[in-house]
Design a protein that fits this description.
The chain is mostly beta strands and 442 residues long. Helices cover 1% and strands 38% of the residues.
């Protein structure tokens, strides 16, 4: 991984979207109803312009209560164009975007890829994929200004909790990780590189799971697990993790495991606290394919019964799936719930009725990506197309989706919209689908 220059701040979209395409924006913006979705209404809440509001969101948004969303953009957001943090607030029938922070070429980090986490005290926690004192990414905290702000734009105060340095004693490049907090306020996340592992694709370390613990106004960093390239362990965790009620963490790795092939197929893993240390157990080894490529599993979500759900994305081998991992007598049973033909599925959301939601980066009626609902009907699963993107309402919906307490679904597209900026491709949008009926699983 290389540190981008200012002229290459939009390269993440190019790297993530290997099957990106050119669309003619001949569609007028309207409220769109998918022909297969009844009573659901799609709308665009914000069109990014590439200015102070940013461009190229790749991390979705985070719900902080009814009518309040937080998110990040990978680019735009200031004269350096290195991304920013924003707040979207519902006011009457409309939504207003307020920029909260602009990243720059400095120690504050830049180019955020992972979703934000809202703490009980209202602080925001997140990561940047680059920058910091070690130029390998940061963990950051954002707090509102201590006194009332009367300016048109009221920026929040950023504190860098940790700058990754790489090497055996630290992680590097937190990538798309979603930070999670425990009840004591400790922060947990992953880095794609760094740590003691080596070999294969991870000459700069095979990745870590880390913890940041608050103490006396400072934060203590520690590595809970160093991933190894040894045919057993996973390698290079790109996404974040999820807790269970007992305090165990669950996540995935892009590579590694015991599958045949040059790099392994990736793994689903569990980390359990045990006597002051953390024990790793591999729950499932994803297969690798004929050319040795991995399954590329995304982040996991968990239901109340302890089942885990996620997606895999390797289109060349037809491995674009939604899967379930079910605990059974000390082991885990893997099931494929749905297989896509052309999708590149992103991380999922789960509602209280056991239905799953997500996006396909490509495909759909306009080959611009689409939003789906996978309906759980007593053990059988049926997919429903909620919306097909058309360009003027966004396209290439990279990132997770999220439900609020009223059952409204939110997400972002990296490109598209009607602003005409960002090289004429559009700078992306934040979108909403209402009328789904089931709130997010807690």
């Amino acid at each position: 991984m290389t540190i981008p220059t200012q002229s290459s701040v939009r390269t993440l979209s190019q790297e993530l979207l290997l099957r990106a395409f050119t669309l003619a924006f001949s569609f007028a913006l309207a409220v769109v109803l998918s022909p297969t979705a009844e009573a659901q209404t799609f709308s665009v809440l914000h069109f990014f312009t590439g200015g102070a509001d940013g461009s190229d969101p790749v991390a979705g948004v985070t719900v902080a209560g009814p009518g309040t969303l937080y998110g990040t953009t990978y680019a735009g957001g200031g004269e350096d164009g290195l991304g920013g943090v924003f707040k979207l607030t519902q006011r009457g029938s409309g939504w207003t975007l307020d920029p909260l922070y602009e990243f720059s070429y400095g120690n504050d980090g830049f180019q955020p890829q992972g979703p934000l986490t809202v703490a009980p005290n209202g602080a925001l926690y997140g990561t940047t994929s680059n920058g910091g004192t070690g130029d390998r990414g940061t963990v950051l905290e954002l707090q509102p200004p201590p006194t009332a702000c009367h300016s048109a734009i009221c920026y929040w105060n950023e504190t860098v909790l940790h700058s990754f340095q790489g090497g055996a004693n630290d992680g590097a490049y937190p990538s798309s990780t979603h930070l999670v907090l425990d009840q004591a306020g400790n922060i947990y996340g992953t880095t794609e590189f760094g740590g003691t592992g080596s070999g294969g694709e991870c000459q700069a370390g095979c990745g870590t799971v880390f913890e940041l613990s608050p103490s006396g106004g400072a934060w203590t960093f520690s590595i809970l697990h160093n991933f190894q390239f040894n045919g057993i362990d996973g390698t290079m965790p790109e996404y974040g993790m999820v807790f269970d009620p007992a305090g165990n963490l669950y996540g995935t790795t892009l590579y590694g495991g015991n599958a045949s092939g040059q790099y392994g197929g990736g793994t689903a893993f569990e980390l359990s606290p045990s006597g002051g240390t953390w024990r790793e157990d591999i729950l499932y080894n994803f297969p690798s394919w004929e050319d040795g490529s991995p399954s590329q599993a995304t982040s996991l979500i968990r239901d109340r019964s302890g089942n885990l759900y996620g997606t895999t994305d390797f289109p060349a081998q037809g491995a674009e799936t939604i899967f379930e991992l079910t605990p059974s007598e000390g082991s885990w049973i893997f099931s494929t719930l749905y297989t896509f033909g052309n999708c590149s599925p992103q991380p999922l959301a789960l509602d209280t009725q056991g239905n799953l939601y997500g996006t396909c980066v490509v495909g759909g009626a306009n080959d611009a990506g689409w939003v789906f609902r996978l309906i759980n009907s007593g053990g059988s699963w049926t997919i429903l197309d909620l919306h097909d993107f058309a360009g003027s309402d966004g396209y290439i919906p990279v990132g997770p989706v999220v439900l609020d307490s009223n059952g409204n679904l939110y997400g972002t597209t990296t490109l598209g919209g009607i602003s005409g900026g960002c090289g004429g491709e559009g700078c992306g949008v934040v979108w909403e689908i209402t009328g789904l009926g089931a709130p997010q699983k807690k």
